[in-house]
Amino acid sequence: MKLSEYFEGLKNKRVTVVGAGISNSPLIEALLKHDVHTTVCDKRSVEQLGETYDYFLSLGAVFNLGEDYLDSLDADVIFRTPGLMPFDPAIADAVEKGAVLTSEMELFFEVCPCKIIGITGSDGKTTTTSIIAQLLKSEGLCVHVGGNIGNPLLMTADDMDPSDVVVLELSSFQLITMKKCPSIAIVTNLSPNHLDVHKDMDDYKEAKRNIFLRQNVFDVAIFNLDNEYTSDYAASAPGHIRYFSRQRAVDDGVYTDGETIFDAVDGKITEIMKVSDILLPGVHNIENYLAALAAVRGFVSRETMIETAHCFSGVAHRIELVRELDGVRFYNDSIASSPSRTIAGLRSFDRKVILIAGGKDKGIAFDELGDACVSYVKTLVLTGVTAQAIREAVEGASGYSSGYPEIIAEDDFEEAVRAAAAAAKDGDVVLLSPACTSFDKFRNFEHRGDVFREIVRGLE
C-alpha cells in the first residue's frame, strides 16, 4: 500500500495523534494536508509548542494540550507517541470503545516497499544499527536508517525502491504494539531497563519479543547466545534462527574465539576477520560487530566487512573520545542510561577510570554497578537524583573499603565534570557514563552529552 492511499482511506475518520514531537510531526503535517480530521494531544502548552502550534493550527489541527491532554480521548484511529504505553488508562479505555491504536512506526511497516532489518535490545542497539548501515552502504546498497536514530522515514516511504534496505533501531516502546516484523530481526541483549515505564520485566521482555514474533518461515531472527534472556527467545521464533556469541562456537551464525571472528553456516566454518581489525574499543563492541555481521550475511563481502571494521569510528555519545588534555582522555558515553550499559563501558578500558555517573531514577537496582565501580573505578563523581543511591550501592559492594574508589558528590553537572578533571592525572581516563536517564537535568541523553562535550572542550 502506498502512504498516499493510506491517508485517502482516513478521509472520513477522526484521527488523534498523541505527541507532537520529532517522529510524529511529519505525520501530523501529512494528515492535515490530506484533509484528515486531526486532533493533536500533547502535554505541553501552547507557549511551549510555540511555532509548532501555530503551524499545525494554520493547517486545521484541533488541539488538546496540558496536563489533561488525554481527557475525553475520542477517535477512530489513535497514533500514540512511543513513550505512551497501551495500558495507559485513557488509551485502554479508548481502545475498548473501538478506537484503532497504532503508531508512526507501525504505519511505516505497512507502507515500506523494501527489506527491513530491525535491531532491538537493552544495550548496543544504536552502534549495531550504525555498523549494519555502514556495511551495507560500503557495499553500494541504498540504505535508509531510522527508528530511534536518524530522521523519521515515514514520509519518504513512497520514494523508496524495492531494492533499497531500511535499517531500524527499535525500542520496547515502539515494539510493544507492533503487529508486523522486519525480515531480519536482531536482539542484541536484554537486561532490566525502563522498569519505570513498563509494568515489570516480563512486560519489557514481551515488548522486545514483538520484533520477531510475527515473522514468517523465510525471515531471520538473530539472538545473543550469551545472554540469559535472548538465548531463550529462539523457542518462540517462527523464522530461521542465527546466533552470535563471544563465548562459544555456534552452529549457524557468527562467533569468536577471542582472536578471530568466524561465520558458521550448516556446519561450514569460514574466517571473517580478526578481532584486532575492529577499530572500536570494548568487548561490547565486539558483540555489536558479531550481531551486525550475522545480519548482513549474503549482502556484504568479506572484504567490505574488514574495510568497514578498520574505518568505522563509532557513534556520538557512545564512548566518544572528546579530547585529550595533558595526557587525560575524556570520553562521552551519555547513551549509557542503564547500569548494564555503564558496566559495559567500564570494561572497555585497560585501566581504572574516573567515572561521572547519576541522573534520573529508572527503577533499576544499582547493586551490580556498585560491584563494577569497586573493580573498574578509581574516582567516582556522582551527580543528579540517583547520586545517593549509587553511593550506597558502591559502599555496600563486596570489596569496597573507604576511599577505594574515592567518591565525590557534586549536584551541579558542570562542577561534577570539573571535579573529575581535577582528579585526573596524566594517563587517566575520564568517562561520562551515567547509568541513568538524563531527564533530571537535560532534554535527553544527546543534550547531556553535548553539554559534557562543551564543558570538556572548554577546560584549560
CATH superfamily of the largest domain: Mur-like, catalytic domain
Mean pLDDT: 94
Would you identify the CATH architecture of the largest domain? 3-Layer(aba) Sandwich
Percent of residues in β-strands: 15-25%
Helical region count? 16
Structural class: alpha/beta
CATH topology of the largest domain: UDP-N-acetylmuramoyl-L-alanine:D-glutamate ligase
Low-pLDDT windows of residues: none
CATH class of the largest domain: Alpha Beta
Number of strands: 20
Helix content: 25-40%
Strand order of the largest sheet: 7-8-6-9-10-11-12-13-14
Morphology: globular
Distance N to C terminus: 58 Å
Q: What about the largest sheet? A: 9 strands, mixed
Radius of gyration: 23 Å
Q: How many structural domains can be distinguished in the coordinates? A: 3
What does this structure look like?
- It contains 16 helices and 20 strands.
- The protein is α/β, with parallel strands linked by helices.
- It has three domains: about 10-100, Rossmann fold, CATH 3.40.50.720; about 105-310, Mur-like, catalytic domain (UDP-N-acetylmuramoyl-L-alanine:D-glutamate ligase), CATH 3.40.1190.10; about 320-455, Alpha-Beta Complex (Protein-Tyrosine Phosphatase, Chain A), CATH 3.90.190.
- The longest helix is centred in the N-terminal third of the chain and has 14 residues, at about 125-140.
- The termini are far apart.
